[in-house]
């Protein structure tokens, strides 16, 4: 998993509440267990018209936001079913950080397991961040995980809370496997002792 330290990017504004995982990645894309290639299906029912052409009105299709790595979204982001394909699709598109006032628990946990930082802010701070994001390519946000702050283009700062263990994992690029590998020498020692034990 890639480390998350400081991320500077244009932020794409998505002023929609209750964005569920089916909106993030519709069911027809769930046939794969690969984590790559899902970016094409991200928000596909909003990004594409029925004939397959791009919907120019959708945020991520607009030139300023095509390479956005940060998403500023409405309340209750990631609700609905527990599909892990949702963070996979965000990550494959290039989104490393989602900012909202609230997240569904399972989606929130899945983000950390996949190297995405979900940041919960107050409604007042979210509105400030929406204002920054809606300035398009003229404004970038900087997300500093170590300092736990979001810096706006005009010098404003929004602080955020994060669980210390999850912060450690993101800063060091550790998913569940990575955490286990950190204990590899202890595991090897235990297994050697186990092998030497006389079994009755």
From TrEMBL:
Domain Aconitase A/isopropylmalate dehydratase small subunit swivel, chain residue ranges per copy: 1-123
UniProt feature coiled coil, ranges: none
Listed GO CC annotations: 3-isopropylmalate dehydratase complex
Keyword Amino-acid biosynthesis on entry: yes
EC number: 4.2.1.33
Record-linked Pfam families: Aconitase_C
Pathway, per record: Amino-acid biosynthesis; L-leucine biosynthesis; L-leucine from 3-methyl-2-oxobutanoate: step 2/4
Keywords of the record: Amino-acid biosynthesis, Branched-chain amino acid biosynthesis, Leucine biosynthesis, Lyase
Gene Ontology molecular function terms on file: 3-isopropylmalate dehydratase activity
CDD domains recorded: IPMI_Swivel (cd01577)
Presence of the UniProt keyword Lyase in the record: yes
Catalytic activity: (2R,3S)-3-isopropylmalate = (2S)-2-isopropylmalate
Physiological role: Catalyzes the isomerization between 2-isopropylmalate and 3-isopropylmalate, via the formation of 2-isopropylmaleate.
Similarity annotation: Belongs to the LeuD family. LeuD type 1 subfamily.
Subunit comment: Heterodimer of LeuC and LeuD.
Protein name: 3-isopropylmalate dehydratase small subunit
Native organism taxonomy: Bacteria, Pseudomonadati, Pseudomonadota, Alphaproteobacteria, Hyphomicrobiales
């Amino acid at each position: 998993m890639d480390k998350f330290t400081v991320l500077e990017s244009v932020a794409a504004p998505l002023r929609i509440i209750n964005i569920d995982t089916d909106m993030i990645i519709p069911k027809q894309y769930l046939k794969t267990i690969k984590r790559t290639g899902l970016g094409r299906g991200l928000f596909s029912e909003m990004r594409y018209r029925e004939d397959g052409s791009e919907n120019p009105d959708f945020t991520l299709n607009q030139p300023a936001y095509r390479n956005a790595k940060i998403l500023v979204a409405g309340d209750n982001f990631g609700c609905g079913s527990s599909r892990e394909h949702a963070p996979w699709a965000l990550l494959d598109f290039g989104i490393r950080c989602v900012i909202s006032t609230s997240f569904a628990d399972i989606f929130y946990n899945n983000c950390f397991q996949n190297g995405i930082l979900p940041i919960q802010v107050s409604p007042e701070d979210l509105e400030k961040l929406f204002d920054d994001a809606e300035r398009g390519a003229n404004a970038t946000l900087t997300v500093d995980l170590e300092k736990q702050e979001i810096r706006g283009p005009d010098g404003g700062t929004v602080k955020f809370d994060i669980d210390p263990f999850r912060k450690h994992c993101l800063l060091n690029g550790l998913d569940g496997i990575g955490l286990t590998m950190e204990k590899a020498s202890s595991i090897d020692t235990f297994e050697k002792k186990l092998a030497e034990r006389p079994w009755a």
